Design the sequence.
């Protein structure tokens, strides 16, 4: 038994010595392989370092609305109808509410009638034609009387000549007055047209239309409520394109060095983005500046307020 144990102990010592002798060789082989790999691709580490230097990753980026419009009333009045509710999609120009229109319609009707009267007076040229005829006739009568007085002494008295001259001057001035009246009538037509256009604008303002396409997310008024000019009726947002807002440290990049291309990442999914603004103002305490990028959101999967990261690129 003792002989058997001695034999096992001797074998264990021999095996340990053999392993110790082989370890330096294995370590040397691994070092040679590493050196060979580095020599085979010496630019790999340099390219990796260069790629890192060309890109700036900012972990704190947030999505914001670009189009966020409060649609307001242009005139004062009572809300007559509301055509939308929260969640409705609207297009630019869609009527979302209407104010009472009785007064505006009456004003438009009055303006239309006054315009018709002005046009009729402008087209009536009877006074102008009469003044021209009267001027011609009185002028001829006066001239004949003057000729007769010159040919035959005392054939026409001086008083009669003065009266005829006065009639001629009156007819001439009446013609000038008729011409001026015609000009005034034309100007009156233009004035009434402007008043008519103003009345139509005021009537259109009773309809409150969306200035943009998007989704209605808030309705502030109800039918029957009184609103003042500028008071909001509803809020419309557009989700088709969102803004990525972040702040970049000055030690990482300057505002002028950031390129347009960027990538926004949210929950592992990447979205192409375009940098549209880098603020020239540097925060004196933190030494950073604002960067805005825009990302397309046709599917609507991105929502304002979501957070993610953005990878910016430096200009060449």
Sequence:
């Amino acid at each position: 038994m003792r002989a058997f144990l001695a034999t096992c102990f001797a074998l264990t010592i021999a095996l340990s010595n053999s392993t110790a002798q082989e370890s330096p060789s294995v370590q040397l082989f691994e070092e040679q392989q590493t050196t060979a790999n580095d020599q085979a691709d010496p630019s790999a580490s340099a390219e990796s370092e260069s790629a890192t230097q060309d890109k700036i990753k900012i972990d704190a980026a947030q999505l914001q609305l670009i189009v966020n419009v409060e649609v307001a009333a242009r005139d004062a009045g009572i809300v007559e109808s509301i055509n939308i509710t929260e969640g409705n999609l609207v297009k630019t120009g869609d009527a979302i509410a209407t104010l009472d229109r009785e007064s505006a319609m009456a004003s438009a009707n009055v303006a239309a009638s006054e315009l018709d009267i002005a046009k009729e007076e402008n087209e009536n040229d009877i006074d102008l034609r009469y003044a021209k005829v009267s001027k011609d006739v009185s002028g001829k009568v006066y001239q004949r009387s003057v000729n007769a007085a010159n040919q035959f002494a005392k054939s026409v008295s001086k008083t009669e000549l003065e009266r005829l001259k006065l009639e001629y001057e009156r007819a001439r001035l009446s013609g000038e007055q008729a011409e001026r009246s015609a000009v005034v009538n034309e100007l009156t037509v233009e004035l009434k047209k402007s008043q008519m256009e103003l009345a139509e604008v005021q009537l259109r303002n009773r309809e409150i239309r969306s200035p943009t396409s998007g989704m209605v997310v808030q309705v502030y008024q109800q039918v029957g409520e009184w609103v003042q000019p500028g008071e909001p009726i509803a809020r419309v947002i557009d989700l088709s394109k969102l803004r990525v807002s972040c702040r970049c440290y000055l030690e990482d990049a300057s505002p002028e060095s950031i390129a347009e291309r960027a990538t926004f990442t949210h929950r592992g999914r990447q979205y192409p983005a375009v940098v549209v603004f880098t603020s020239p103002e540097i925060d004196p305490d933190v030494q950073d500046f604002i960067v805005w990028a825009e990302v397309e959101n046709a599917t609507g999967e991105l929502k304002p307020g979501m957070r993610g990261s953005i990878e910016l690129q430096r200009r060449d």
Summary: Helices lie at 2-40, 44-54, 102-123, 126-151, 158-204.
